[in-house]
C-alpha cells in the first residue's frame, strides 16, 4: 500500500514538476525574476549566499538542545520525529542548491563569453532538476507543517 501511494505521488505530483524544469531556460535558475540585464547580478549572488548560510546555520543549530539550565547536548533520539526539523533541512538543502547554481553560472559567465543557454552539461541539468524537486518539496511541506501546527497544535 505504501509503495503504491509513493509511486502515485511520484507519477502524478513530483515527476511532472521535474519535467517542467527542462522547459525553462537556465537563466530562470540563476537570475532574479526582476532582473532585466543578462548575466548574474552580484546582488542576487550575495543574497543567495547569505540566505543559504543563514538557513544552513539554523538547520545545524536545530540539532542542539537549547536548555539554559544545562550545557548544550545533541538530541539524537528525538530529533528525527519532528516534521519541522525535516522541513528546515529541506529548505536548507534547497537554498544550498540554489546558491550552487547561481555561483556556477556567475563563475562560468564571468570566465567565458558563452551564453548560459549553451551550458548543457549533464551535471547542470541534473542539478537544476534536483533543485526544482527540493524547492517544490520544501515549499509544500513548509505550508503543510505550518497549517497543521496552527490548526491542530496551537491553543491560544
Automatic annotation (TrEMBL):
GO terms for cellular component: membrane. The chain crosses the membrane at residues 40-64, 86-109, 130-153. InterPro entries: Rost (IPR049352). Pfam families: Rost. It comes from the Eukaryota. The keyword Nucleotide-binding does not apply. Keywords: Membrane, Transmembrane, Transmembrane helix. This is Protein rolling stone. The lineage of its organism: Eukaryota, Metazoa, Ecdysozoa, Arthropoda, Hexapoda.
